[in-house]
What we know:
By secondary structure, this protein is an all-alpha fold. It has one domain (22-49, 77-234). 76% of the residues lie in helices and 3% in strands. The protein has ten helices and two strands, in the order H-H-H-E-E-H-H-H-H-H-H-H. The protein has helices at 4-21, 24-48, 53-62, 76-87, 91-107, 111-135, 157-175, 180-203, 209-243, 247-261, and strands spanning 64-65, 68-72. It has a two-stranded antiparallel ribbon with strand order 1-2. Strand 1 (64-65) and strand 2 form a beta hairpin. Helix 6 (111-135) runs antiparallel to helix 9 and helix 7 (157-175) runs antiparallel to helix 8 (180-203). It starts with a helix and ends with a helix.
Amino acid sequence: MSTSSPYHKRLLGLWNQVRARVELQLLIGVLLIGLGLWLFVALADEVFEGDTRTIDEAILLALRNPADRSDPLGPPWLEEMGRDFTALGGVAIVGLVSGVAVLYLALDRRWSTIWLIIIVVGGSLLLNSLLKAGFHRPRPDLVPHGMVVYYASFPSGHAMTSASVYLTLGALLARLQQRRYQAYLIMGTAILVTVLVGLSRVYLAVHWPSDVLAGWVAGSIWATVCWLVAWKLRQNSQHKKSLLPNEADQNKLSEAEDRSRG
């Protein structure tokens, strides 16, 4: 016990030095963004070299009736449920949910949070459009699509938008909760919705599984970037306010100046 104590103290001292020089939240955020970018680039490389083709096709076919590829596995109500889940990642529903959140925050005059949501939603849609145009991957052609599609396949727009928007809104709501289990429930629900949206895209055969995975990664990266920038701006604002003299200090300073003049 005594032999490990000096080592423990040195390790703790080193950790405190790192924390003093680099803000922990900033470090974690940068690491997550770096990991996400590496994963996205690696996945995109695998996709366009054709290395994911085999597993993509195997997963899509596993979700279809072997006797009739146009028929997804399960009863008709399961297919309808898949369309309901996939709608949660569409522009209409995401826009409606985000609009309600913005309206609620406007009533509370939380303008910085409103800008965060606007940037997350707008940036996610714009970034996804640019990525689709750049990669221009065709939609799955093994089986008939379970719904109408309009744009290129990689990355999945529904998966990316749901990851960025619902995870951001979930984190905002979780921060307002006083009890930890309530925050866990909210974040768990946001993650569940994100996962269901992505899975429904594969079940309906409108995306390859690798499209959905890339969408989840890209959406998480974008949400983390926005959160990191918002957190840093808030930290800088609080630091500037702390440097300003408060009202009591200003009164004492004025009294001291009056006494010196008298």
